[in-house]
Amino acid sequence: MEIKNDEWLKSCIESIIFIAESPVKTAGIASCLQIPEKKAAELIDALEKEYIDKNRGFMIRKTGGGYRFYSNPQFHEQLKEFVKSNISTYLSQAALETLAIMLYRQPVTRTQVAEIRGVRADSVFQTLIDKGLIRESGRLKEPGNPKIYKATERLYEILGINSTGDLPPLKDFEEESS
Amino acid sequence: MVINNYVIEINDFSGPANLLLELVRKRKIDIYNIRIAAIIQDFTDYISRNKNILLDTITSFIYIAAILLEIKSSSVIPSQRKDFAEDEELKPDNEALALRERNYRIFSKISNYINRLKSTEELYFIREAPVETQFLDAMPDFLKNLSIENLNYLASKLLGKSDFTIDLSTVYIEDASITILDAMEKIKKAVVDKKEVSFKEIADNYDLLVDKIVCFLSMLELYKNEVIDIIQFENFGDIIIKKMK
Q1: How high is the ipTM of this complex?
Q2: Residues whose CB falls within 8 Å of the CB of residue B123, separated by 6 or more in sequence, listed in order
Q3: Is the pLDDT of residue A114 over 80?
Q4: How many interface pairs between A and B have CB atoms less than 8 angstroms apart?
């Protein structure tokens, strides 16, 4: 039987996040190791700090509601050479505007987005769905029953946030605008 | 919104389209003196000269030109604009237009902001590839402790009906005669021998439905591991399995 001291638990968490293909939630780690969620979160924090203190090539970050290993952005230039492939997702201005509206007004219908942008952009919606950045989340209970859309965790992930709660309040942009 | 490289040149204005819109909005330039038709003509000339123009550039221009037209037409015939927006019926037309324009500018700013977030995020790399085979054993067993009884319990919980239970004594699930690993080997051998094989051919070797399902899962697993390629021409049509090049 293993001894469940903190160092041992940290190694376990390290290995779980290492093999995960998508962000791992604290609850998942806690139930796997049979420890309270709070304890799991503390240990992840400790790991995060350890990597930063030692300036490792990788780090743990919380995005899309879970934890993942990321490369250290300091080595971005060198890694770019190594990875070569174009991993960045190109998003057109129309797509970015649609996402902006989505993040602050979700769930939204296509028409609601078109009203703000002044143009209909059904193809933008399709592209964003294909890229897994938005998804259908039901239908509005009004004439025509239009589909409503929401941001996906993948979108939060590529923006490095966990939820819309991490975004600055809308009024920050209003003040700048006026 | 930026219109790349395209510069509008009219009477006493020279600059990007969004700047013109801004100046019109702030009443620094009188919309009355702007010949929108001339601007549009100039832009269509510009795009016919530049074949590699970005779609963004065109859509941005159309958007701005449309707003300019809207502002101009409302300044000439204000009474035409009563039904501008359902929820803004009571507001004077210019106010409704200004509100929409203001809203748009806010979200345009936000879109720049999320683009910055995205660019920062691109400095980080994550593993996108699936787990290498040597680490597969380290994966937690998600089906551990799974039984028909607790599946039944979870289903009733999910459906929100406490009284929903299946009488398990009448349920019989037949055992599969093959394992996924066996079926994977068979499919692999078939694609090596015949270069291409259909799913129907594979599944026809088995009578039990559960065995056919095992074949299907094995095919998906091989596809996921990039061992085979699969093609299906129509929904519910047969699936052609080929060796991955």
Answers
A1: 0.70
A2: A73, A76
A3: yes
A4: 107
